[in-house]
Recover the amino acids of this structure.
C-alpha cells in the first residue's frame, strides 16, 4: 500500500488544528467566528513534525480549500470547514497522489508484461477501494473525538455455491442459526 508521510503528516496536522478549534468552541461557542489562527510552529511542536515540511503540505491544503491562511503578525492557518465536514480521504487527496495497492502504474492496464494483470490484481485493487471508502467515511471530528476504533466492518462470509451449500443453508435456517 502506498500512503506516504505526506498523507499521514497532513492528517496529523489537521487533527491537531481540529482539536484546538473544537476545544476553543467547547469553551466559548460564540468565539468560534473570531478564533485566532494557529501557527505552523505550534502544530509542528505538538506533533513533532518539521515546520518546513508542514509549509509545503499547507500550501496544498490551502489550494484544496481545506485550510485558510491569515498573514501578518499573529497569522497562521484555520480550518476552512468544520471538522465534521472534512473527510480524511479529502486530506490525503489534497497532498498526494491516490492511494495505490497494486503494482500497476499510471495508465497501464496491468502489472505484468504486455499490460497483463497478475492473478492477485483484483484483490489488491479492491483493498485500495476499501481503504479509500474507510477514509472517506471518517472525518477530522471523528478522529479528535476518538470515534475511529472499531469502525472497520468485518468482511461478509464467503459465498458457498452448489447443492451442498444450499442444503447447509436450509439446515442452518431450520436450526435457527
Amino acid at each position: 500500500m502506498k500512503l506516504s508521510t505526506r498523507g499521514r503528516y497532513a492528517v496529523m496536522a489537521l487533527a491537531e488544528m481540529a482539536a484546538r478549534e473544537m476545544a476553543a468552541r467547547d469553551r466559548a461557542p460564540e468565539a468560534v467566528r473570531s478564533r485566532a489562527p494557529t501557527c505552523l510552529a505550534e502544530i509542528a511542536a505538538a506533533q513533532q513534525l518539521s515546520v518546513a515540511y508542514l509549509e509545503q503540505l499547507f500550501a496544498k491544503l490551502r489550494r484544496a480549500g481545506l485550510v485558510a491562511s491569515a498573514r501578518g503578525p499573529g497569522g497562521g492557518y484555520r480550518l476552512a470547514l468544520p471538522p465534521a465536514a472534512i473527510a480524511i480521504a479529502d486530506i490525503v487527496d489534497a497532498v498526494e497522489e491516490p492511494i495505490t495497492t497494486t503494482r500497476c502504474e499510471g495508465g497501464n492496464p496491468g502489472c505484468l508484461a504486455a499490460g497483463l494483470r497478475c492473478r492477485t490484481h483484483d484483490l489488491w485493487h479492491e483493498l485500495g477501494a476499501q481503504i479509500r471508502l474507510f477514509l472517506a467515511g471518517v472525518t477530522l471530528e471523528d478522529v479528535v473525538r476518538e470515534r475511529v476504533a472499531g469502525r472497520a466492518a468485518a468482511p461478509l462470509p464467503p459465498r458457498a455455491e452448489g447443492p451442498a451449500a444450499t442444503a447447509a443453508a436450509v439446515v442452518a435456517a431450520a436450526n435457527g442459526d
